[in-house]
Design a protein that fits this description.
This protein is an alpha/beta fold and about 425 residues long. About 40% of the residues lie in helices and about 20% in strands. The chain is built from 16 helices and 12 strands. Helix 10 crosses helix 12. It is globular.
Length: about 425
């Protein structure tokens, strides 16, 4: 593998079982600049390392020369056939930024039907990452959703590129919180350069994914909704309250349905991720009581001059993204009037419960508050309390861990 690539093992592990599967299209999704293109390059390298001939690997980046002028399915088909026409055996087809090609779905389905193409695609705009893809690719695909670097990857990548990692893990965590986890930003040495880069990513999302999006007709309204949701990440969002707030600001009638639709577009762009509540007594999801977490904390900090850290939602956001990146389904737990920050469900249907706090050392009342929700759960699945404390409590079988060390050491729930 090229020494310039930091290996994103979490996602390679998810993709490897499908490397040679010609019946399933592999779709890599995620916010812009989270590392999708690099991941496809890593897969290409791994295929070559395991003996696949270089000529059987067809790699087309539609944002780069000589392919950037391809805009129609016919032009793309001609390019693919010119590379694969005389090849025998399985062909490995990688197409980056496939949304650049109009009606690509019909063509990609046709190559999948032939059975001797293993297809890998990425895309960045809201259409590519929306539910429309499900029907257009006729359900024969898997989606591997990427995030920017989680805290464990952030530390590993710094070491990979020879950057200094601080001895104090909490100081390193604070840098990660303020500077975010965009892979390219890690390569820069100065905070101002990192901030400039993240701002360029935000500008790119606006220019390529929002400005040209026909589903977002009221750009100012969308901008206000985006600002509101980002500034209130990790907090329950009342769409009815949001609509009333916007009515007062804009002096016009803003419908709840419009707010829902624009929040959905933020989800499609992978800027935010919805976390639903789950009632542990009734065993059902509760609609309308969602929280939203950021795909990268820098979306908040790059646009806020107040550099103080509100550790409550920040630490929740870090744990949420870490759990998702390691394959857990995540929801918020409701137990009567109490709430546990996260219910995690693994791929083999095992559960665990996680409470997140900056510290439980401030007072006895603080400790009681953080333990109360976990102790109210009467089943025998593991229960975790993650804080930044180094003095760890032992109480009723609940596992108290230092959050930064837990994630740095890649521990499982």
């Amino acid at each position: 593998m090229d020494k310039d690539y930091f290996k994103r093992e979490k996602y390679l592990k998810k993709a490897r079982p499908f490397y040679h599967d010609g019946d399933t299209i592999k779709v890599f999704s995620g916010v812009r600049r989270c590392g999708k293109t690099s991941l496809m390059a890593m897969i290409k390298d791994e295929l070559e390392e395991c003996g696949i001939k270089e000529e059987n690997i067809i790699y087309i980046n539609l944002d780069s020369r000589p392919y950037m002028k391809i805009r129609t399915a016919e032009e793309l088909e001609e390019t693919i056939d010119s590379r694969s026409g005389s090849l025998s055996g399985m062909k490995y087809l990688f197409i980056d930024e496939i949304q650049n090609v109009k009606n690509f779905e019909i063509l990609i389905n046709a190559y999948r039907e032939e059975g001797d193409y293993s297809i890998f695609i990425t895309g960045s705009n809201s259409y590519m990452l929306s539910g429309e893809l499900v029907t257009k690719l006729t359900g024969r695909y898997i989606e591997i959703e990427m995030t920017t670097l989680t805290f464990d990857e952030y530390i590993e990548m710094k070491r990979f590129y020879g950057k200094q990692v601080k001895d104090n893990i909490e100081e390193e965590l604070n840098d990660y919180i303020r500077q975010g986890g965009f892979p390219q930003a890690v390569k820069y040495d100065f905070p101002e350069a990192k901030r400039t880069y993240v701002q360029s990513v935000i500008n790119e999302i606006f220019e390529k994914d929002i400005k040209l999006n026909r589903k977002i007709r009221k750009k100012r309204l969308f901008s206000l909704i985006q600002q509101y949701v980002i500034n209130n990440y990790g907090q329950p969002v009342s769409v009815e309250g949001l609509a009333k707030h916007l009515n007062a600001v804009l002096k016009e009638n803003v419908r709840k349905e419009t707010c829902y639709r624009y929040i959905e577009q933020l989800e499609n762009l992978k800027i935010i991720s919805k976390c639903k509540r789950f009632d542990l007594k009734s065993r059902r999801s509760l609609n309308g009581e969602e929280k939203y977490y950021l795909s990268d904390l820098s979306f908040y900090f790059v646009n806020n001059t107040d550099n103080r850290i509100n550790y409550g939602p920040v630490l929740e956001n870090i744990v949420y993204q870490y759990a998702k990146s390691t394959g857990y389904k995540v929801s918020i737990g409701k137990i009567g009037k109490l709430e546990v920050d996260f219910i995690l469900r693994s791929s083999d249907q095992n559960y665990s419960y996680v409470q997140v706090a900056m510290s439980i050392l401030a007072s006895e009342q603080t400790e009681e508050r953080e333990y109360r929700s976990l102790e109210a759960i009467k089943d025998n699945w593991p229960k975790y309390l993650l804080t930044l404390d180094h003095l760890l409590q032992k109480r009723n079988g609940i596992i108290h861990e230092n959050l930064a060390e837990f994630i740095r050491d890649k521990k499982a729930f």
